[in-house]
Write a structure and sequence with these properties.
With 285 residues, the chain is an alpha/beta fold. Helix content is 36%, strand content 13%. It has an eight-stranded parallel β-sheet with strand order 3-4-5-6-7-8-9-10. The chain has a two-stranded antiparallel sheet with strand order 1-2. Bound molecules: NADPH dihydro-nicotinamide-adenine-dinucleotide phosphate. NADPH dihydro-nicotinamide-adenine-dinucleotide phosphate binds next to helix 9.
């Protein structure tokens, strides 16, 4: 088990680059003051890893918050993602330029393909993913991105990418109690790809669950803190999102306890509930 003791402890990616073990999620964080204030709050509380995407339409505000926070750029870890309509070689390069301009940054720490092109939408889905990856690889080699990866890729989407010059370093997938994506989880672990856990709180839907609440009580913690710690103890990197200062703080207070093996087993064997229901091969976006 990883022995993380604070927000600045890191996972090491397969290229040696370090990524802080807790990321700050920003999906559904409205652009404007809400996003600026949430990110500034998070950075002031010690978060150094921010997760955004072109599709979240808040990159400009996140860029503004990064500027206003006055933290040395090297201390921050910023992730963004290329959206589905921009898949392909040239369009990915263009999408990256827009992202980096909106964020007002010189480089990104991590850039991800947001969703795989899949066979329900494209005959040549594998080739589209490879073309997107070719652009990511070029940006990586030029130094404009320090690490590259994918999101929502299952093993059959990853297979071709594993035969290219630069292998994915991260796969960001939905991962929470009741939904551990065992096959993808195993594939990524076997291939030295760090798994980031999106919706670690099930977009809030985990938090009323009685089993999680009972376990939380034992440790004098909240269900949210159990969900986040559970991700780390499963060797995945959680990306909790909040725009509420007290919760942003609460979600960092996870380093002063360890979930017992028995409780881990209980959570690991919970049946499916509170998931997004989004399947990478079935989504229509
Ligand atoms: P989470 O699972 O992190 O849950 C966020 C929700 O829980 C919000 O409603 C938030 O409310 C609430 N919340 C947060 N902390 C607490 C707390 N301590 N107590 C009670 N309620 C709390 O949500 P997301 O689905 O947003 O996932 C997290 C991140 O993962 C995203 O923001 C994004 O960065 C990434 N993601 C990536 C995807 C992908 O396809 N790659 C897809 C989905 C997410 P409030 O904000 O009002 O405080």
């Amino acid at each position: 088990m990883n022995n993380f003791s604070n927000l600045n402890d890191t996972f090491t990616l397969n290229n040696g680059y370090k990524i802080p073990c807790l990321g700050f999620g920003t999906w559904q964080t409205p652009d404007g003051d809400t996003a600026v204030n949430a990110v500034i709050e998070a950075v002031n509380l010690g978060y150094r890893h921010i997760d955004t995407a072109a599709a979240y339409k808040n990159e400009k505000s996140i860029g503004k918050a990064i500027k206003e926070s006055n933290i040395n750029r090297k201390e921050l870890f910023i992730t963004s993602k290329v959206w589905n309509k921009d898949r392909g070689y040239k369009t990915t390069l263009e999408a990256f330029d827009k992202t980096i301009n909106d964020l007002q940054l010189d480089y990104l720490d991590l850039y991800l393909i947001h969703w795989p092109a899949s066979e329900n939408q494209f005959k040549d889905w594998d080739n589209i993913n490879l073309e997107t990856w070719r652009a990511m690889t070029e940006l990586y080699k030029s130094g404009k991105i320090k690490s590259i990866g994918v999101s929502n890729f299952m093993p059959h989407h990853l297979k071709s990418l594993m035969n290219t010059e630069i292998k994915p370093m991260v796969n960001q997938i939905e991962f929470h109690a009741g939904f551990m994506q065992e096959e993808t989880f195993k594939y990524c672990n076997d291939n030295n790809i760090v798994i980031e856990a999106w919706s670690p709180l099930g977009t809030g839907k985990m938090l009323d669950n009685n089993i999680l609440k009972e376990i939380a009580k034992k440790y004098n913690k909240s269900a949210a803190q159990i969900c986040i710690k559970w991700c780390l103890q499963n060797n995945t990197l959680p990306l909790p999102k909040s725009v509420t200062p007290s919760r942003i703080k609460e979600n960092t207070e996870i380093f002063d306890f360890v979930i017992s093996e028995d409780d881990m087993k209980t959570i690991n064997s919970m049946p499916y509930f509170g998931g997004s229901g989004l399947h990478p091969d079935k989504v229509d976006f």
